[in-house]
Specification:
single chain, mainly beta, 60s Ribosomal Protein L30, Chain: A, eight-stranded antiparallel sheet, six-stranded antiparallel sheet, 3 helices, 18 strands, 11% helix
Length: 238
Amino acid sequence: MIQKNKTITCSIGGCSCSSSILDGSFKVQWQGAQRDVLSGDINGHVDLEQLEGVPGLYGLGPLEEVKGEITILDSTPYVARVQQDGSMVVENSFHNRACFLVYSQVPRWQKVALPEDIVDEKSLERELPGLAAEYGLDPALSFPFLLRGSPDRAVFHVLNKTDGLLHSPELHEKAKVKFVMEDTGVEIIGFHSSDHRGIFTPGHSSIHIHLKSEDGLMSGHVDALTFPQGIELYLPVV
């Protein structure tokens, strides 16, 4: 590999990280952990402003105080919140903080032939390691992925904590405001890891996925996804 003459250095939440952009390479990074949120720490430990201007950036995480969802696609943030009337509002601003954040700079993506038996988020999780290996990634390492198209049905949520109580797994579930989209164009960013459950993937899964609608007016954490046809999968070029 030939290294480009560019290095991105950032400081997030008091912790420093440095990432050199390589031709055809990527590095998954994270700050904070989901398990800390579920244990009651809902402070905004990650300052998104430190990532503004970083090229090829993709990421996701919960908004501070568990009052929204953060999705970053190609260096554009989509910060979703629930309004008092139950509707959603999405802003494109880095002037926010996350409880925890997983992110990666991806210079190039490659389209992957999606097997016919991958029809939902569960079969996708099961088959991703094999697909990653087939396309040159080490499935033992963390990696991002993209989905684009119009799923038959997408169930997703936006966190909206309003109880003022010490946060817990039970209150985390109660804070989820559910939304459903059907036959609507979306772009989805996800991260796969078999070693980071409870850190940047949920405790019950090896993938963490967020979506945003094509018009950018809807965004959030994906709970369930059905896509018998019409979805494209992309993995980083290595």
